[in-house]
Design a protein that fits this description.
Blueprint: E1 2-9, E2 19-26, E3 31-35, H1 42-49, E4 57-62, E5 65-66, H2 72-77, E6 78-81, H3 93-101, H4 110-116, H5 132-144, E7 150-154, H6 162-177, E8 181-185, H7 189-195, E9 198-203, E10 206-211, H8 213-220, E11 224-231, E12 234-241, H9 249-257, E13 259-265, H10 270-278, H11 282-285
Parallel strand pairs: 3-8, 3-9, 6-7, 7-8
Antiparallel strand pairs: 1-2, 1-4, 4-5, 9-10, 11-12, 11-13
Bound molecules: adenosine-5'-triphosphate.
Residues 11, 13-14, 18, 36, 38-44 line the site of adenosine-5'-triphosphate.
Length: 286
């Protein structure tokens, strides 16, 4: 869908490039996660590939054609949902959606979309009366109202409770399963893990890793077994390498002789990988 090659970018008032020769592809029909610490260059990249920022160096192709050769037809083909929802607060939700839909040639069915995100019953409420979660869901409806082929989502589940977050994630997966392509940024690693086919990590304007969450876990995984046992009224934790565990005398002795509380195999999470690749913890981030 997208081919980005040797992309560099510098803001006019900055001395150095904020993007330094980055290359990546987004395949048709995948959910591609773009992750990295604050200030790494995620928004800048997103703004360039949706044609908000120009004057970049490098080549970007969308569906095989140079991005700079696209005009209005590009915006007809994509849907965008930024982190901060912007709506006309003195208009109803439905009026807002109709207003924005009129800007496009291709139109999705508004009722189906609003029902899908649980907003149809509140369609005649002023947006000013909407909660934050309702505004975020309305924002997704806006991103989909022209039946786009490609969706750009910036922190789509941020600020949503678990049930609304699930509605949104299911919607994103349905979009992908029906052939759509998604570019997504998020700080919520469990959501990224559930949603993304592949992820890229960007640090300081450079791409450090691109792979599927599964492959990253295999590559960065520690593959160990954690055993907790009780001794002298204390809980002791020990880790053993998974490899040749059946020959590991200390492990065998421990499970034979100790008062075992728990045994877990060590699954590396995407959050652990984020920390390893970027050197930044997500708490520092927020
Ligand atoms: N309009 C601008 N003018 C000058 N510098 C900018 C501008 N916007 C962003 N920057 C700088 O470019 C770098 C990359 O910023 P960018 O917003 O792309 O990061 P990000 O990864 O999206 O961060 P966050 O997760 O906080 O949104 C930062 O150093 C930032 O200060």
């Amino acid at each position: 869908m997208f081919q980005v090659k040797d992309l560099s970018f510098k803001y006019k008032n900055n001395e150095n490039n904020v993007l330094k020769n980055i290359s990546f592809d987004i395949y048709e029909g995948e959910i591609f996660g773009f992750l990295g610490p604050s200030g790494a260059g995620k928004s800048t990249t997103q703004k360039i590939i949706i044609k908000i920022l120009e004057d970049y160096q490098g080549q970007i192709h969308y569906k095989g054609k140079n991005l700079s050769d696209y005009h209005q037809e590009f915006f007809e083909d994509i849907g965008v949902s930024f982190e901060m929802p912007i709506h006309f607060s003195k208009m109803t939700a439905l009026e807002n959606i109709k207003f924005f839909q009129n800007l496009y040639k291709q139109k999705a069915d508004i009722e189906t979309l609003m029902k899908r995100v649980g907003l149809w019953e509140d369609k005649d409420k002023m947006v000013a009366e909407y909660s934050k979660g309702m505004k975020i869901r309305l924002n997704i409806v806006r991103a989909l109202l022209n039946s786009p082929n490609m969706l750009f989502l910036d922190e789509p589940t941020n600020g949503l409770d678990p049930s609304n977050s699930k509605i949104l994630k299911d919607l994103i997966k349905e979009f992908r399963n029906s052939g759509g392509t998604v570019f997504i940024t998020s700080h919520i690693m469990s959501d990224i893990d559930q949603l993304c086919d592949r992820v890229a990590f960007i640090v300081n304007g450079e791409i450090k890793e691109i792979d599927s969450p599964r492959n990253l876990k295999i590559r960065y995984g520690e593959r160990n077994i954690k055993v907790e046992y009780k001794e002298n009224n204390q809980i002791i934790e020990k880790k053993f390498a998974m490899e040749k565990i059946g020959d590991n005398e200390e492990f065998l002795k421990t499970i034979k002789e100790k008062d075992i509380e728990t045994i877990h195999s060590g699954e590396t999470t995407l959050e652990d990988i984020f920390i390893k690749v970027t050197g930044v913890t997500l708490n520092e981030e927020q």
